Known about the structure:
By secondary structure, the chain is α/β, with parallel strands linked by helices. It has two domains: about 260 residues, Rossmann fold; about 80 residues, formyl-coa transferase, domain 3 (2-Layer Sandwich), CATH 3.30.1540. The protein is about 35% helix and about 15% strand. It is built from 16 helices and eleven strands. A six-stranded parallel β-sheet has the order 3-2-1-4-5-6, sandwiched between helices. α2 links the parallel β2 and β3. The longest helix is centred in the middle third of the chain and has 24 residues.
Amino acid sequence: MARAKELEGKATGPLAGIRILDLTSVVNGAYGTQILADQGADVIKLEDPGGNRGNGGDIMRWAGHVPDGTPRDMGPVFLAINRNKRSIVLDLKKESSRKLVRKLIASCDVFASSVRYDGLKRLGFAYEDVAAIKPDVVYVHAAGYGSDGPYAGEPAYDDLIQSASGLADVLPRTDGNPTPRILPTLVADKVSGLFLAQAVTAALLHKARTGEGQFVEVPMFECITSFLMVEHLFGHTFEPPTGQLGYSRVVNPNRKPFKTKDGYIGLLPYTDKQWDQFFEAAGFGETIAKDPRFSDYFVRMKHINELYGLVAEAALTKTTQEWLDILKPMSIPVVKTNRLDDLETDPHLEAVGLFERYDHPEVGGYKQMRPPVKFSKSPANIRRHPPRLGEHTDEVLAEIGETAPEGEEA
């Protein structure tokens, strides 16, 4: 078992000194604010105490199994997207708690929330309310749908946004099965979280240059549709259209890991030279050279299905390692296809130390993926375990000269 890594005590990232009040939850917002926390921001995660019908705090605290005898509020997905944050518990239905939040806002640079905007208005935390307390605040709302459209205010989760954005139509365009299908990863949540993190840093840059805060809306539906349609608008980019929706190379049913004698490889010759070299290595060189369907990039794209079929045929002639040994010296893009089980022992990921082990005083040993982006002058770091529910309520309130209302102590 890998040796546990020690937490780093001080924020070293480029956002050190930035303070964020975080009312996001689940995956979208929490993933985005963890990126900001890794980059140095002091992220204060405001959670609800819950009620008689459920446990309190971010619902992701309760998703998945935890080791026997460890706290139930530290589920695996929660651990993955909430490190470097401090958790406080306040009941925003109570004016005593809202009063504390207003005082806390005055000490923060950013107010981030995924609470529906009508709910924020009812609580007295709409943009105008928060800006009245902190005029230069960067107020970021992680919405499901943009406020100018007819879906504004409707609930949005990854499954819904994948369905609405066209993502669920990608596999049918690939394999001919007309049934829409959701991709088995929280791509809409996580990509929206990336949009959120980038939007916060851009708004902070504007504030640094002008002194102005602003309202920033990050709507999942629009973000994911724009993300998807970068390549899949394709032939409909032009008016009138010049071809199909869906980038032909990407929705090709043969675009997949290619089976070798003993495994699979990811393989993508790209240039004319690389294609020639690949088929020469496969023993198809003379055949391909005489085939007008594959003479150059433009023509190859018209016959991409047949081309990938030939690649699949060629891949079967050698083992995975044989292909790596032949193609890597030619700089032809090729990798061994990893299963999820292979990732922790992948030679590259081991060398760069992506997976790290930590010891939580109550949870025990757990793994994290370190911040993947490298800053040469201001490196991101991990300095706090994912917090227990309300772990830092007293600490944070003491920083603004307050204590928790009766019955809401940490």
